[in-house]
Amino acid sequence: MKAIIIAAGRGSRLQHHTDERPKCMVRVGGRSILDHQLEAYRAHGVDDLHIIRGYLAERLVVEGATYHANPDWPDNNILQSLFCADEALTGPMLVSYSDIVFTPEVVEAALGTEHDIALVVDRHWHTSYEGRTDHPVEQAELTRVDEGQVRRVGKHVGTEGALGEFIGLAYFSERGAKELREAFAAARDTYALHDIFQNGRTFQKAYLCDLFEFMIQRGTTIGTAPIEGGWREIDTVEDLNAVETSLIRETTFS
Questions:
Q1: Any idea where the domains of the chain sit in the sequence?
Q2: According to the CATH classification, is domain 2-248 in 3.40.50.2000?
Q3: For the segment 158-188, what is each residue's pLDDT rounded down to a tens digit?
Q4: Where would one find coiled-coil regions in this protein (predicted)?
Q5: Which of 75, 137, 206, 242 could disulfide-pair with 210, CB 3.0 to 4.6 Å?
Q6: Closest by alpha carbon to 211, among 68, 74, 83?
């Protein structure tokens, strides 16, 4: 099984922790954020690793991984970064943000879906925002779901009526990956030279969730792989300290 890990950004909100290393190489619990993620992947045989590098690329080294360069990482965003690995975007595959840690059970949920495209969605997302001031709930990529299908997803969705939070991990079958590539090509052809693509953002600065919403508008079915905790995002120093504390207490990320 293949995993595409989007790891080009610096992570400036981690402050001095990323002065000399990429965001995903920041250490928590004695190991890098990425090491925690890879451990969960390998527990389920996900070992065909593709990593998109940008900031301090030479310091992000994983034995056996295939690297894809995003030389324009300061000027683009997650969506453009993902498609720097365009030739590798064939399913079945998992795609993940590189600043999240999760348990093997979360990977199991993603791989167990019957959907061609499934977003891993935490239905207990409220708990991870208790006391989280540096990354408030307004920045959560929340989902609205109807009849088992994602209707809206992103930071603009808001808490009212939200099923849960997209954690930054998604599954694509062979067909789902093909639909992803086709949607990106259609969006690029239509919006690359326009001011706005989705949700007030240009195509150059779009999030992955912006493409998901574009796909939904085109009639693509996107489902969910629901979980209840078992993961954490590490976006700020506050997040880093919270996860470190939970590991010291020998708890999961629930």
A1: 2-248
A2: no
A3: 999 999 999 999 999 999 999 999 999 999 9
A4: none
A5: 206
A6: 83
